[in-house]
Amino acid sequence: MRKRYTTIKDIAKALNISVATVSRALRDKYDVSAETRQNVLKIAEELNYKPNFNATGLVQRSTHNIGVIIPGITNYYFSTVITGIQEMARENDFNIILYITNDSPETEIKIAKNLSASSLDGILACVSAHSNDCSHFQEMIEDGLPVVFFDRVAKSVDTSKVMQDDYNGAFAAVEHLIGCGYKKIAHITGTKDLSLTENRLKGYYHALEKYGLPIVPDFTIHSGFSQKDGENDVNILFENKWNTPDAIFAVNDRKGVGAIIALKKRNIQVGREVGVIGFTNDPISEIISPALSTVAEPALEIGKISCGLLLKHIKKSSFPAEQVILSGELIARNSTQRHELP
Length: 342
What we know:
InterPro entries: HTH_LacI, LacI/GalR-like_sensor, Lambda_DNA-bd_dom_sf, Peripla_BP_I. This is LacI family transcriptional regulator. By secondary structure, the protein is an alpha/beta fold. The chain has 3 domains: about 10-50, 434 Repressor (Amino-terminal Domain), CATH 1.10.260.40; about 65-165 and about 300-325, Response regulator (Rossmann fold), CATH 3.40.50; about 165-295 and about 330-335, 3-Layer(aba) Sandwich (Rossmann fold), CATH 3.40.50.2300. About 45% of the residues lie in helices and about 15% in strands. The protein is built from 13 helices and 12 strands. Strands 2-1-3-4-5-11 form a 6-stranded parallel beta sheet, sandwiched between helices. A 4-stranded parallel beta sheet has the order 7-6-8-9, sandwiched between helices. Helix 8 packs parallel to helix 9. The termini are far apart.
C-alpha cells in the first residue's frame, strides 16, 4: 500500500482556512498576512508536508523535471555523463528523465515532438550521429523550453553547449603517435557534419601538417562510433596491401578496440607494427590486450556543468548562451609502444 503524504488540504483543515489561502501562504504571496503564513509554515512542518512539484508546476510553471536525450546508455562515456547530470540535478532538487534515441535521428525527432507537451523544465541533449537537421531543438527553445547540448552538439542552434576539447585532444593523440615513430597515420572517425567529428579531424590534419607528414585521403574513413565500425574501417584500410598505415587514430575507444581486434585477426602486432590510439578512456581500453592508448575525456564534469548551465537557463529565461570546452588528458599505453622491427 502506498504511503499517504500530507497535502495542503490537511494543512487547511488543521487551521480551518481555505486551501487557496494555504497555497498562497506557501508561495509567500502578498495578500496573506504574516501571522497566517507563519501558522501555515508551522503546521506544515509539524505534519511533515513536502511540496508536490508536479502539482505546484501547474501554478508556478515548474515541474522540477529535466529531460536528457542521449544516443544510448550502454557505454562508459554516457553512463558517466548521466552520473554527473544526476548529481547536479539532485543537489538542486530536480529529477532527470532519460530518453534514448539509439542514434536514430527519426527517433530523436519523434521524442522532441512529444516533449513539447510534456511536463519538463528543460532538456539536456546529445544529438544522434546521423542527425543533420536539428530544427526540432530550435522549435523547443522557441516554445520556451530551455535546451543545453553536451558532447555532440547542434551547431545551428544558439544555446549553451558543453564539450571536451576535441581539436587539441586529437592533435595530442596524433602528435603522440608521431613521437613514437609512426609516419603513416590513418584516422577512423565518426559521421560527417558532427562538430565532434570535424574538430577531431582538424586536429588530426594539423598535427600531420605540423610535422610534415602526408595527408592521404584514403587514410580517413567516416562511419559510426561502434566497435564493429572500428573493425570494418580497419579492414577497409588494409584492403590495399601496397599502401597501408602504420598507425591508427580512432575517434573513440570503442572504435580503437575494434581496430585492435581487426589487426590481431590479420596477425598484425599492435604497437610494434601498427600503433593504435583512441579517445575517451573507457575502462575497456585497459582490459583489451595490448592496452589502448587514449585521450581521457572529463565525462563526469561535462555532465555536471551542462546540468548546471541548464538550471541557469531555467531560472532565468534571458540567461546568455555559453560554450564550455574542457581539456582532456593523453594516456599512453602499450598499443603505441613501438620497438625496432627485426
